[in-house]
From TrEMBL:
Pfam families named among the record's database cross-references: LysE (PF01810)
Chain segments annotated as coiled-coil in the UniProt record: none
Main localization category: membrane
Keywords: Cell membrane, Membrane, Transmembrane, Transmembrane helix
GO cellular component: plasma membrane
Name of the protein this chain belongs to: Lysine transporter LysE
The keyword Zinc appears for this protein: no
Topology of this chain in the membrane: Multi-pass membrane protein
GO terms, molecular function: homoserine transmembrane transporter activity
PANTHER family in UniProt: ARGININE EXPORTER PROTEIN ARGO (PTHR30086), HOMOSERINE_HOMOSERINE LACTONE EFFLUX PROTEIN (PTHR30086:SF14)
Superkingdom assignment: Bacteria
Subcellular location: Cell membrane
């Protein structure tokens, strides 16, 4: 992949990572609830999920989904249902209590990782987006595998850094979350529910 083309791809990827979505919202929420260190598991799960979607897009699943609308519809409903479930869980999460942050039970790392992974995989529209986005940066004169590795690694690093920044930002406003955390949790939960309801209806 030519360096100048990679720079353009880097800028485009940064813009994509900064676009609000379920995983950035989840990183922000978990960063506020559990701290940035524990939110790392959530962020890594999301990065793995996005990398899998990039791989699927690169090797033709987007074409399969376009040819089989019923499969896409089923994936959209499953993804929407998961986002609604995640939103309900966030809505029911109690606010942080002053002085109890350290003693409060934390979900195991694998549970946080799974939430990040499933949140990334729950939107099949991302596969179609990558199917249209990534070919713009492919050089047909170069090997596909090498370009895939560069593009996937670039996206993974950028997405990781953006979500980590969100988690750190949330942790810095933790004192506010201890006072108004219940409202914060419910707001984030409501956004997830709205995303889950809108996803299957999106054209």
């Amino acid at each position: 992949m030519a360096f100048d083309l990679w720079l353009i791809y880097l800028v485009a990827t940064l813009g994509l990572a900064l676009t609000p979505g379920p995983n950035s919202l989840l990183a922000l929420t978990h960063g506020g609830l559990y701290g940035a260190r524990h939110a790392l598991a959530t962020i890594l799960g999301g990065v793995v999920g996005f990398s899998l979607l990039i791989a699927l897009a690169m090797f033709g699943l987007s074409a399969l989904l376009k040819a089989a609308p019923a499969a896409l519809l089923a994936l959209k409903w499953l993804g929407g249902a998961y986002l609604v479930w995640l939103g309900v869980q966030l809505w029911r999460t109690p606010a942080l209590l002053p002085g109890l942050a350290v003693e409060a039970p934390l979900p195991p790392a694998h549970a946080l990782f799974r939430q990040g992974l499933l949140s990334a995989l729950s939107n099949p529209k991302v596969i179609l987006f990558y199917g249209a986005f990534l070919p713009q940066f492919l050089d047909p004169q170069r090997g596909l595998l090498g370009q895939f590795v560069v593009m996937a690694a670039t996206f993974a690093v950028v997405e990781f850094l953006v979500e980590l920044a969100l988690a750190l930002l949330a942790f810095r406003v933790r004192p506010w979350l201890q006072r108004g955390g219940r409202a914060f949790n419910r707001c984030c939960g409501l956004l997830f529910v709205l995303l889950g309801l809108a996803l299957p209806l999106a054209r």
